[in-house]
Amino acid sequence: MAASTALLAPLHPAFSESVSVNRGEGQGLIVTHRGNCYLLIPDHVRGRSSRLSLSLGAPLVGGEATVFQSFAPGTDLAVAYVRGDLQGRCREDYADLDRPVDTILDGATRASLVRVQTSGQITRTPVAITEILYDTLRIRVEDDEAPLYQGTSGSFLFVDDIPIAMMIEAPDPMTGIALRADAIADRTRRLLSGRSPREDVAAPPLRSDGNGPDAAEGLPIADIGCSAEPVSPEAACSNILTGSGPLLLPPLGRPLEIEIELETPGEKAVVVSRIELASQPDDASSSPKAVRIELDSSQGTQRRWRTFGAGDMSPLGELSIGSGGGQFARRLRISIDNAWRPDLPVRLDRVVVR
Q1: What average pLDDT does range 96-124 have in this prediction?
Q2: Where are the alpha helices (DSSP H) in the chain?
Q3: In what order do the strands lie in the sheet with 318-329?
Q4: What whole-number distance in Å separates Cα of residue 211 and Cα of residue 204?
């Protein structure tokens, strides 16, 4: 059969970003969700390491990711948090994966297998869909000169530039098994929405790399209070003020609130342009996930809270929310709606107000 694999120039801007992992040891797909960028890969591609190197093609860009959730051995799937320059290339909305593959196919029996080479070249190989199962698809390569070589695991199948499945196994060089995109969405939905993961999920602790915001550069804090009692006196709310240790609050039964009073020289409100949070969870604690921040510039006891911003803290325990030229404030309120591991105490190590 004549070769029909195409070498691609830069793909259409709406095309989902496939990536090469660990210099061609595997592949993956990056998706965006609530301000963060995530990598979806087969768990076996990462091996025993949680740190991964990544490269995108057309144009070639390198980056890195850290695995924070494995679904093995039940499902050959892992999720990593993407850092660095790749974040600007996250285009595929995670929610787009949660579409029934059967509906997308609509009777179609052909798809394209996209692979990123370490050189930056992107290939698109035509495949036939030979069987549609509940969680997987079985495919056959239609190009004898483009077999499923080592490093294909994690490559995504596309129909009209819509991702429909991720390669997880190749029984032989011409046939493969792929995990359906809607099955990936089903496995990861509760994780990325902050609810408890499935019982078959192995949940390793989330760890920060220690590169969070520098408290010495922030605006001075006069006082701090929390809506819940800490898990112990040593993990009190005042630790954020004194820097004497982390704040540990009980597992979330309802949103937690932290109110911070800023030092206001001459009783004048100060300009707040950015607020940064950092968490360094361990085996016995979790970082926050969905966070909302409000400001108040009023005097006296009557509060007039206004929205400053909201977002998800990254799985590595980092969140930075800005507001252009800044807003005047005397105090701020941080509301933590959920956590990455909601069955554990919520840990917060640092709050920096700029």
Answers
A1: 93
A2: 43-46, 101-105, 181-192, 239-242
A3: 318-329, 270-278, 350-353
A4: 20
